[in-house]
Write a structure and sequence with these properties.
Blueprint (H helix, E strand, L loop, with lengths): L1 E5 L15 E2 L2 E2 H9 L6 E5 L12 E3 L6 H11 L5 E5 L7 H9 L7 E5 L6 E8 L4 H9 L5 H7 L2 E5 L12 H8 L2
Helix pairs in contact: 2-4
Subcellular location: Cytoplasm
EC number: 2.7.7.77
Keywords: Cytoplasm, GTP-binding, Magnesium, Metal-binding, Molybdenum cofactor biosynthesis, Nucleotide-binding, Nucleotidyltransferase, Transferase
Length: 185
């Protein structure tokens, strides 16, 4: 299994690149890289071409489509179609080592994905999910139909949903106010 850190967004609501924000005494992308490394063969950062220099010499997959998270996930499967991908959004700083361990330990590789069930919406959380190789066909079909929502794929598919024991793990930080409330900065 490989990992993909989704860092290619424009961060318009935040006003600055969310992957570079400091949590855990380091940029968020580096924290996630170190967090995912024990569980995955290779950890890649999904980014735009103009962001690549932000990630030193770490392995990047350039997303040229810029259609949101689905573009990054599609690029990952184009790179390694026979591998599972643990996909992680860069704007979830409350993810901890036990989050990843819980997800990996509950993985059901016979389904297209293993995802946390979001405690508020009760939908799968597509941006902290293990996407299995058999999901690639659904991702391609969605893209060809100009539908770019990973959530819609998961809502229609055979997904192993796991209750999230700590809802804070799934908290997205999207605005300067969210950042301030999370870090106290």
């Amino acid at each position: 299994m490989n990992a993909l850190i989704l860092a290619g967004g424009r961060s318009t609501r935040m006003g600055t690149d969310k992957s570079l924000l400091t949590y855990h005494h380091q940029p968020q992308w580096r924290y996630l890289y170190e967090l995912l490394t024990p569980y995955c063969s290779t950890v890649f950062i999904s980014c735009r071409a103009d962001q690549k220099d932000n990630f030193d010499s770490f392995p990047c997959l350039i997303d040229t489509r810029e259609i949101g998270p689905l573009g990054g996930i599609l690029s990952a499967f184009e790179h390694s179609p026979n591998e599972a991908w643990l996909v992680m959004a860069c704007d979830m700083p409350l993810v901890a080592p036990e989050t990843i361990a819980f997800l990996v330990n509950h993985r059901q590789s016979n389904q297209i994905a293993t995802a946390f069930q979001h405690p508020e919406t009760l939908f799968p959380e597509p941006l902290l999910t293990i996407w299995e190789p058999q999901s690639y066909q659904s991702i391609q079909a969605q893209f060809q139909q100009n539908r770019f929502s990973p959530l819609q794929i998961l809502k229609k598919a055979n997904v192993h949903l796991i209750p999230c024991p700590t809802p804070r793990w799934l908290q997205n930080i999207n605005t300067p106010e969210d950042f301030k409330n999370t870090t106290g900065q």
